[in-house]
Amino acid sequence: MIQNKIQLVIFLGILSKASCDLYRIVLIEDPKTWTEAQSYCREKYMDLATIQSDEDRAKLKEAANAVNFQSVAWIGFYRDVGGWSYQNTPISYAMWESWEPDLPKTNEACGAVQSNGRWGDRGCTEQDYFFCQTDTQDTLQNKFKYIDIVMNWHDAQIHCRTHYVDLATITDDTENTFLANILSNMGRYYAWFGLHKNPLNPWLWSDNSSVLLSSVKWESGQPDNVNGNEDCVKASTEGLMADDSCSTLLPFYCREHRRIQRVRFTVKSDGDLDESAVMEAIEKKMKEILSDQDMEITSSIKWSVQPDGEIFQQQKTQENTQETPCEE
Ligand SMILES: [Ca+2]
Ligand SMILES: [Ca+2]
Q1: Are the C-beta atoms of residues 80 and 190 closer than 8 Å to each other?
Q2: Contact at 8 Å (CB) between 79 and 160?
Q3: Contacts of 44 (CB under 8 A, 6+ apart)
Q4: Residue 76 · residue 47 · CB < 8 Å
Q5: DSSP conformation class of 307
Q6: How remote is the CA of residue 183 from the centroid of ligand 2, in Å?
Q7: Distance from residue 111's CA to the centre of ligand 1 (Å)
Q8: Within 13 Å and on the Cβ side, how many CA atoms surround 279?
Q9: 110 C-alpha vs ligand 1 centroid, how far in Å?
Q10: Which ligand ends up closest to the CA of 232?
Q11: What contacts 100, CB < 8 A, 6 or more positions away?
Q12: Phi, psi of 62 (to 5 degrees)
């Protein structure tokens, strides 16, 4: 007698595949300094939260409301205190006077070299003599030009760019001493050089995302730097920001990234579906998809059981299901 066994054939195909990056803002209520909070977020999540859009503010509010939090907490925004540069190239050599730079209350500051060889930050509208730099590198005498006329920093820069290359860049002790000696020989105290703190971008995000100053929402009257060292930023539950001392202990918001990969499978079978066989086939396929993206399943797969007790539902009609991939 021939045994007539029904062979179950399962065909598994991918109907659609879409991935999207989602994020969530998490409130950590344990108070920390800004730097401690940053380390914590970087270790457990992605970074301190970036609050730059209405969506960010809504997610921040959601995180606060979830635990009925009504106070202020750190976010990933801070003042660029080390932002001294030559034409936006950060300085690698500095010879500040011991109490300088001391202009925390202004966002605009320009650098001057003094006859004692030390540097000071000065209001850019001060009138000072200045040093230009030429395109000749052979000797220090040829490389630098002392201009014995007083101008504000910006006019001095225009003068140097018009007649030479730019305001001077001081890169080591030899150059610094050379310029200081010129000043003391001339009986002058200050001279501008190319050192400048960029006034357009004094604030940075912890995660290095670009700062769109137009989308940054401050509390009214902030930032005021009232303590002179308010280089870190906290936010209200509405996402309105204020500067505060970085050593203040505050709760904080972290940003968490989540990647959602949505894959729709089509399963065809010539018999009744054997759920466990389909599950096994889907699991295999998912591993293939993830390994294509250098990812792996780190925990076991969970299956949602539908109200009728089944995991899979037979699709009777071919619907045109246009899903938005990022909806959870
Ligand atoms: Ca100063
Ligand atoms: Ca403040």
Answers
A1: no
A2: no
A3: 254
A4: yes
A5: T
A6: 39
A7: 9
A8: 12
A9: 9
A10: 2
A11: 118, 119, 120, 121
A12: -60, -45
pLDDT in tens, 32-50: 999 999 999 999 999 999 9
Q: Quote the DSSP letter at residue 128.
A: E
Q: Which ligand is nearest to the CA of 224?
A: 2
For the ranges 80-89, 108-117, 140-149, the one whose mean pLDDT is highest? 140-149
Distance CA 142, CA 70 (A): 63
* 119 exposure class (CB count in 10 Å sphere: 0-12, 13-18, 19+): buried
Where are the extended beta strands (E) located within the chain?
10-32, 47-48, 73-79, 84-86, 89-90, 109-114, 119-122, 128-133, 144-151, 166-167, 190-197, 203-205, 232-235, 241-244, 250-269
- Predicted TM-score (pTM) of the model is 0.52
- pLDDT tens profile 51-63: 999 999 999 999 9
Q: Among 72-81, 151-160, 305-314, whose mean pLDDT is lowest?
A: 305-314
Give the amino acid at 200.
L
Instruction: List, for residues 213-264, the tens digit of each pLDDT value.
Output: 788 999 999 999 888 889 899 999 999 999 999 999 999 999 998 777 777 7
